[in-house]
Design brief:
There is one protein chain. This protein is an alpha+beta fold. It has three domains: 47 residues; 44 residues, no CATH class; 104 residues, Orthogonal Bundle (Helix Hairpins), CATH 1.10.287. Helix content is 68%, strand content 9%. The chain has a four-stranded antiparallel sheet with strand order 2-1-3-4, with no helix packed on it. Helix 3 packs antiparallel against helix 4. The longest helix is centred in the C-terminal third of the chain and has 46 residues.
Length: 229
């Protein structure tokens, strides 16, 4: 049975309505997709942004896209848009600070070397004390010999002064003879020897004091490393 004109009109209208609804749904999907893409783009841009953080002269933390030149040498850091630290730059150190740090490093290395030497060289406190006594005894003997030699030189100088008192320019006698070259040379030579031995004596005594103190320090450190009380 062939459809009537009314049925044909109803079918046509139904098709148009379906096409309209399909177009509306498709447009909504496109709009949603566009909005999602825009949000994603903004999020990506935000996450890729770098922000610099520094402290100004008043002690206030500041943020910006770049660091002012006057704060570039100070400590600062770079953070992401989400506040995550990406990079930290320490403040530039002065020559004095660098020298101090280097000295601390050298001192620490020396202390470590000393500890290794103590542990590798000695097995007991008594061994350190024996070596201390041997070296101090040797120095004491050298000091004694130097002191005795110095006494001899001072005795010679006393005799030379008595002898030289008979000659000009030491004698008050206008008729006193001039000092001989030999006596003058002896005075100079003995005086120089006395000066040399006095210096040697001071050095030996200083060495003795330093050595004694060093051994005391070594014994204390060895006890500490070994846990000896």
């Amino acid at each position: 049975m062939a459809p009537t004109a009314a049925q044909n009109d109803a079918g046509l209208k139904g098709g148009l309505v379906l096409k309209h609804r399909t177009w509306v749904l498709f447009s909504a999907v496109l709009l949603a997709s566009s909005a999602l893409g825009a949000n994603s783009s903004r999020s990506s841009s935000s996450s890729g942004r770098k922000v610099y953080e520094w402290v100004d002269a008043q002690g206030i933390t500041q943020y910006g896209d770049r660091i002012p030149p006057e704060y570039a040498s100070q400590e600062h850091r770079v953070i992401s848009g989400q506040g995550i630290e990406l990079e930290r730059t320490e403040a530039q150190k002065s020559p004095e600070q660098l020298a101090e740090e280097e000295q601390k490093r050298v001192d620490a290395a020396r202390r470590a070397d000393r500890d290794r030497n103590l542990l590798n060289t000695y097995v007991s406190v008594q061994e350190i004390e024996r070596l201390r006594d041997q070296r101090l005894t040797l120095l004491s003997d050298q000091i004694k010999v130097t002191g005795q030699f110095l006494e001899i030189l001072n005795g010679k100088m006393s005799k030379l002064k008595v002898s030289s008192a008979r000659f000009r320019p030491y004698s008050t006698d206008p008729n006193a003879p001039p000092m001989s070259d030999q006596v003058a040379e002896d005075l100079v030579r003995v005086g120089s020897d006395i000066h040399t031995q006095e210096e040697n004596l001071r050095e030996k005594r200083s060495e003795e004091a330093i050595m004694s103190k060093q051994f005391e320090s070594d014994i204390a450190r060895f006890r500490e490393l070994k846990g000896i009380h």
